[in-house]
TrEMBL record:
This is N-formylglutamate amidohydrolase. The lineage of its organism: Bacteria, Bacillati, Actinomycetota, Coriobacteriia, Eggerthellales. Gene3D superfamilies: Zn-dependent exopeptidases.
Amino acid sequence: MDLISGEHRASEAASAYVVLAGHGAVLVSAPHRVEHARNGAVKCAEPDAGRLALLLHDRMGCPAIYRCGASLEDPNYDEASDYRDEIVRLVRDGGVRAVLDLHEMGDRHQSMVEIGTGHGRNVDGRFELTDEIVRAFESRGIEPVTVDAIFPAAGPRTVSADVARRSPALCFQIEMNVRLFLEEGGRSDFSVVCDALEEAVGRLNEVLR
């Protein structure tokens, strides 16, 4: 499945987002890869979520979308969003059946990974698929993993909730604790997180193809 003819990467400077062509049923998304604004306050970028989306695309060939540029728009909060509209288009025209929307959460949280499903609404009640994602992390020693406990992605303007409402895609918001990406003793858990996400994407592709 080719989502688009080639990549939008060359137009990063002029565009607010980039779409990378790919194959498979799962789209990975990083809407906060760059700084964004919410209620007049500029919020920090989430660069490791962006790195993960790009690396998963490179490793697996899965389609990806991420924010770029300096517009400060927030696809996970703004009332209208070209970014969310593009994902809906990719579901409709490109055959995407699931979206993994990647985010980073602060180190004040005890959970290492939080999966938001909108209390099941964003994934059409397919909690067995949520369990697959949980196992991918826990089997690699990344825990605790919580579901809909901190960031359920229930707000109507989140990427997951809006795309799920306007399309048949199953949408999982995945919040990863920044502690996973901090180097301690010269290493971080970035590669382990990437392996877990790769397993999750692969498993969803198997189930949804």
